[in-house]
Design a protein that fits this description.
Rieske Iron-sulfur Protein, alpha+beta, three-stranded antiparallel beta sheet, rod-shaped, about 270 residues, 10 strands, binds FE2/S2 (inorganic) cluster
């Protein structure tokens, strides 16, 4: 269970507890008021005493003065019935508010941006020198897949012309972070080690090592994410998707053509 879900449950339980607490206070207050009015008015009945003969005056006792005790009268059926009705009203109101709270927070959790790491945030792809060694000439130009960010990191030494390169730091870092989602219909695109292309298994779209369009039904090259270096770390902003280069783009001659056999037949 994610921390966000736990926080939502805690808040919802707090709202429910608050509603019940407030209902309880209101009921107690009204019962007190009912008791006070019952004892003050003497139950609403009046009696007329017969006139008594005058008694000899007694000397007041100056040492002890007793306050006459008031007898509490039990609540009438009518008063009890009102309390029950009020309790039910408040129970219904509390339940409704609790439901609204859960519903509202459930909706918010869908709309709230995921800021607790993972896809959609800035991801540390590792030490720059290590990454470059792995995906560059020393590593045979084998792309590195970062599952947390759903992207491929590939080496790049092309001209860097076009918005897709200028806005992603490709020339400065010699790296490209390619979104693995096929721009045709969204399948995950694996890398083919023999052809050095990215080949989509769904309908056969093919993309060069730098994500440019090579063949198939895809309308353009693979989308990508901006890369910046933070100290020695490669930081990839997966919250910003940069649209892939249009068909016909070819900025790196070395990988313009397949290096061997296709993995997905044409
Ligand atoms: S989804 Fe990749 S080619 Fe159709």
């Amino acid at each position: 269970m994610s921390p966000g879900t736990i926080a939502l449950i805690v808040v919802a339980l707090s709202v429910a507890a608050w509603g019940l607490f407030m209902a309880n206070i209101a009921i107690r207050r009204e019962r007190k008021a009912a008791l006070a009015s019952a004892s003050g008015s003497g139950g609403g009945t009046t009696t007329v005493d017969a006139p008594k003969e005058a008694e000899p005056e007694k000397q007041p006792d100056v040492t002890v003065q007793k306050v006459p005790e008031k007898k509490k009268k039990p609540l009438t059926n009518e008063q009890l019935a009102v309390s029950r009705r009020q309790f039910l009203n408040r129970a219904w109101t509390g339940s409704f508010l609790t439901f609204l709270g859960f519903f509202g927070m459930g909706t918010l959790s869908f709309l709230w941006p995921k800021v607790l790491g993972g896809f959609g945030t800035e991801i540390n792809a590792g030490n720059y020198d290590d990454v470059l060694e792995q995906v560059g000439p020393a590593g045979g130009f084998a792309p590195l897949f970062i599952p947390e960010g759903r992207f491929w990191l590939t080496f790049y030494e092309g001209t860097g012309e076009g918005v897709a390169y200028e806005t992603t730091g490709a020339v400065d870092t010699k790296l490209v972070a390619l979104y693995r989602k096929c721009v045709h219909l969204g399948c995950s695109v694996p890398h083919c080690p023999t052809s050095s292309l990215f080949e989509c298994p769904c309908h056969g779209s093919k993309y060069r090592l730098n994500g440019e369009y090579y063949g198939g039904p895809a309308p353009r090259g693979l989308d990508r994410f901006p890369i910046v270096l933070s100290g020695s770390s490669v930081m990839v902003d997966t919250g910003t998707v940069v649209v892939g280069p249009p068909r016909g783009t070819n900025t790196w001659e070395q990988f313009a053509e397949p290096q061997g056999a296709f993995c997905v037949p044409v």
